[in-house]
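During the reporting period, our protein records have gained a structure token line. A sample record is set out beneath this paragraph:
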Amino acid sequence: MKKEETKTKNESTVSTSVKRQPDETCCRGQSIEEFALPGVTDLSHLANFFKILGDRTRLKILMLLEKEELCVHTIAKLLNSEQSVVSHQLKTLKNARIVSSRRAGKHVFYRLCDDHIASILDTASEHTHELK
């Protein structure tokens, strides 16, 4: 083991840390392949998915759509937001295949693409409630 000391300008010791060599109890010589992590492209898609979910307005929209299919006008009214803002967020969600839409006359109705999205929202909500 090698000790390292951190010194301030007046050369007094602030803290001491110890560098440890890996041992059998923590590092068993594993390779990254053993963990079956997704490839770079899949990780990029997954990171982008969570980035999209990281917006409060989009989360509110998704939570509304988890209950039922709604049109842009109704979503905007429920969120007390401008219809253009909601439309922009819905476009982002639709491009990410998180929501889908259908046209009925002059109205466009949105819904979650599948049950996976609702499940992710429920699990995340459950987790955050446990943190309280």
Summary: The CA atoms of residues 13 and 26 lie 30 Å apart. Residues 115-130 form the longest helix (16 residues). Residues 2-29 form one domain.
